[in-house]
Design brief:
- The protein has one domain.
- The radius of gyration is 19 Å and the shape is globular.
- A six-stranded antiparallel β-sheet has the order 1-2-6-5-4-3, with helices on one face.
- It has three helices and six strands.
- It has about 160 residues and is α+β, with helices and mostly antiparallel strands.
Length: about 160
C-alpha cells in the first residue's frame, strides 16, 4: 500500500512539473503563434518585455524571436502562404505605433526586407486585419508583427488599452 501512494505521489508531482514547464515555455510560443496566425518554432530563442497586468490587463508587450536559418526558411514559407501577411514596407501609421511604444530596453528597428502582419483584437472590430478603424475607438487591442529576413528575427508588438 505504501508503494502505491509513492507511485501516485510521484505521478502527481510529475504532472505538476510538466504543467509548470508548459506555463513557462510552451504557453508563450502558443500564445504568440495565435497572435500572428503562424506557428512559431518551439524553443526558438525568445526575449519578452510585458507591461500587462495593469487596470483590466492593460499594457503592451514586445517580443523578439530569433530563428535559425532553417527555422526562418520554414517560417517564410508559411508567411508566403498566408494571405494576411504583407511584404514590407509597412504603412506609416503602423510604423508609428510600433516606434512610439513605451517598452524600455527593447525596440523594433526599421526593417526594410521582410514581412508584416496586423491583427485588430478589439471586441468591436468588423475586419480584424484592417487597421484603419482602430483609431476611431476609445480603446485599442491590436498586435503588429514584423519579420526581418536579413536577421531572421520576428518582432511582435501588442497593445491593450
Amino acid at each position: 500500500m505504501k508503494k502505491f501512494f509513492e507511485i501516485v505521489f510521484f505521478i502527481i508531482l510529475l504532472l505538476i512539473i510538466i504543467y509548470i514547464v508548459y506555463l513557462h515555455t510552451l504557453y508563450d510560443y502558443n500564445f504568440y503563434s495565435s497572435l500572428i496566425e503562424i506557428p512559431i518554432p518551439m524553443f526558438a530563442k525568445m526575449e519578452e518585455k510585458d507591461t500587462h497586468g495593469g487596470f483590466h490587463g492593460d499594457g503592451e508587450a514586445l517580443v523578439k524571436i530569433y530563428f535559425s536559418d532553417k527555422q526562418a526558411e520554414k517560417f517564410i514559407s508559411k508567411i508566403e502562404n498566408n494571405m494576411h501577411w504583407n511584404k514590407l514596407p509597412i504603412d506609416e501609421m503602423l510604423q508609428t505605433c510600433i516606434t512610439n511604444n513605451s517598452i524600455e530596453d527593447m525596440s523594433i528597428p526599421f526593417v526594410e526586407n521582410g514581412y508584416w502582419f496586423f491583427l485588430d483584437r478589439h471586441s468591436k472590430t468588423i475586419n480584424k486585419y484592417n487597421y484603419n478603424d482602430m483609431f476611431n475607438r476609445a480603446s485599442s487591442n491590436y498586435s503588429i508583427a514584423i519579420f526581418d529576413k536579413e536577421s531572421n528575427i520576428l518582432y511582435i508588438y501588442s497593445l491593450d488599452t
